[in-house]
Structures are given as structure tokens and as C-alpha cells.
Amino acid sequence: MYLSKLQLYHFKNHSDQSLGFCNGINTITGANGIGKTNILDAVHYLANAKSYFNGIDSQIIQHNQAFFTIKGSFEGESPADILVQFESGKKTIKKNDKAYPRLLDHIGLIQTVFITPYDIELALGGSEERRKFIDLSLCQIDKSYLHNLSVYKKSLDQRNALLKNMQGRPIDPDLLDSFDAKLVPAGIQIHARRRDFVSKFTEYFIPIYQNLSQGSEIPNIHYDSQLNEGHFGDLLHSNQRMDTLAQRTGIGVHKDDLQFGLGEFPLKKFGSQGQIKSFIIALKLAQYKYFQSITNTNPILLLDDIFEKIDENRAQRLIEMVGESGYGQIIITDTHASRVETHFSGLLAEKMHHHLTN
Ligand SMILES: Nc1ncnc2c1ncn2[C@@H]1O[C@H](COP(=O)(O)OP(=O)(O)O)[C@@H](O)[C@H]1O
Ligand SMILES: [Mg+2]
Fold first, then answer.
1. Angle between helix 273-295 and 173-213 (nearest 10)
2. How close is the Cα of 344 to the center of ligand 1, in Å?
3. pLDDT tens, position by position, 167-204
4. What residues make up the domain containing 19?
5. Are residues 304 and 289 located together in one domain of the fold?
6. Atom of ligand 1 nearest to the CA of 335
7. Contact 39, 47 (CB under 8 A)
8. Which residue, 243, 268, 296, sits at the end of a domain?
């Protein structure tokens, strides 16, 4: 499926914006602050029922307005009009004018891969950034993962609320065990799915990284999880005293992380800026290939300010890669119209261009 039309009302800085897109290379140019990234975020929102950047929907409503809507018309095998509306703290999503009973039911219809300068946090930021990457990779293609994740989060919140309420006083172990009845099976399934994902994903990732970086170093990704060490239920049980004292749950997949390395060295400490950028772009392009392998369709590729931060050689290889026939719809932002124009002029794909002005 590809997005043929996008309409935004009161979405961040866009009070009323309408854009058409082709099933090829679309470029959006305009000055800094004009709202280019926000448009890509709206496309991400249409697929994932949330912003890539800001989980607080009330902050996405344009200042001094009461609601926002995002409308997207998708063409392809099964055309669909998707409408997202957020008003008075409530979010609704409609497909062809019919509201989904649950928001989660919508996720998975459309896949997006977003590459933005903010992704540097994947390499340099805390473990939650990398869990978010895994979750976004799996939620878009696996309903049961999405379900398990939601059960896990809810159960963990309840367990932590109990631990906090008790303020360090001893808790009946049977009571804690009963709380874990939902947490444990969900956690075990999330762990198994993440482990499987990392091993499959890495096969796509390594050649893409090597192509982008043109280096000889072999990148690696290691899935770090306490659940690699034993049965989740047993681990939780033996940690009960610690949890009681700490007043929160110290064991589980909410502590998972990914270790990124080049050869035997951690990327974060020893990677050059160029290597880190190649690593991140390769993670995203591998995510694209992973989605493609599972859905047999092309995700929508969102490239935010991609030429701003990478050197000419890497940019050229990226364009060669995404310009090959294996990619579908691409939406690219840049401050310089002439720059994107020269970069993409050689490609045969269908093209459409928008220039945003105040
Ligand atoms: N809720 C909101 N209401 C109004 N403006 C917003 C809101 N959220 C973000 N913005 C504005 O959006 C602008 C940034 O848009 P962005 O898409 O990042 O621009 P670009 O990518 O073109 O540089 C900023 O001026 C910011 O203040
Ligand atoms: Mg931007």
C-alpha cells in the first residue's frame, strides 16, 4: 500500500495541510521549522497510532486548538481511508469511516520505517531507545507480540504499584506470585520473540551495514536479557525480597537491551561518527527488509533530513540502495530543494515534489 493523500488539521504546526504523494520518491522541502518532520510523523502516526517522538497526544494538538485529525488515503491491493482523531483525551481511528473497537486492531495494516536525525539516540541513548526499536519492529507485523506487550505493561504497572504501596514492608509471596500469573507468560513470549527477531534481523543488517560503510569491520548485535539466564517465573520469585525493598520490579523484559558492536568493540565507545551513522541507517534499512520479508509488501520509507548529517559517499550509497527496485514509496525531507533534486535525478522512479512555505 502507498499513501496517495495526507490531510492534517491542527496537527502540531499544521493548521490545515493537504499533500498528494506518488508511489515512488516524494520530496518535501522547506526552511527549518516549517513542519517537514511533523509531516513524516503524521505518516508514522497513521500506521502506528502514535507519534514517533511524543507519546503525549495532547501536546500534538496545535497550540490553542481542541483537537487534531490526520487523514490518509492509501492505494494498492486493498485501498483504505484512515482517519485518526484526538479530542478531549480520546483517540479514535477509523478505517473507511468505521471506528476500530480497539486502537491495537489497526496496527499492522501499514508498515513504516522512519529514519531521522533523532535516531542517534539508538546508539548513544539509554536502553529504552533500543527496546522501542525492537517493539516498533515487532508490533507492526505481529499482533500477538503487540498483545503480549500490552498485557506485560499493564501487569508490571500493577505489580509496581503494589510494591510501592507496601513501602518496603514484607509482602505475602503468594500474593506476589498471583500478580505474576499474567506477567510471566507475557514476559516469556516477548523474550522468545525478541530473541528470534534479533537473530533473523541481523542477517539483513550485516550486509547492509557493510555496503553503507564500505569498511571491513563486522557489525554485531547482541540481545541482552535477564531472561537469557533462566525461567522468568523462577527469577522473579527469587528476587521477591529485592523487589520488596526496592519497591519496584527489577527482573523482566523491561530491562532488556541490545548491544551494538563493531568487531569486538562496543559501538558507543569506539565507533566513529560515520560508523555510528552507518549503523543506525543500516538498522532501519534492515527493519525495512525484515518487514518486507514478512508482509511481502513494501513499507513506507520516511527519510528525515537524511542529507544533512551524512557525508556524500554514504548518501550516494543510501540512494543507490533505496533507488533499486526493491523499495516502494519513499518520502524525503530536506531544507535544500536543489540537493534532493541532484541526488535523485538519476533514478527512474516516479517522483513528486512539495515545497512548504509559510
Ligand atoms: N503542538 C504544536 N502546536 C503548534 N506548533 C507545534 C506543535 N508541536 C510542534 N510545533 C512546531 O513545529 C515546528 C517544527 O516543525 P518540524 O516538523 O520539526 O520542522 P522542520 O522539520 O521543517 O524543521 C516548530 O516550530 C514547533 O514549535
Ligand atoms: Mg525536521
1. 110
2. 27
3. 989 888 888 888 899 999 999 999 999 999 999 999 99
4. 1-111+298-358
5. no
6. 22
7. no
8. 296
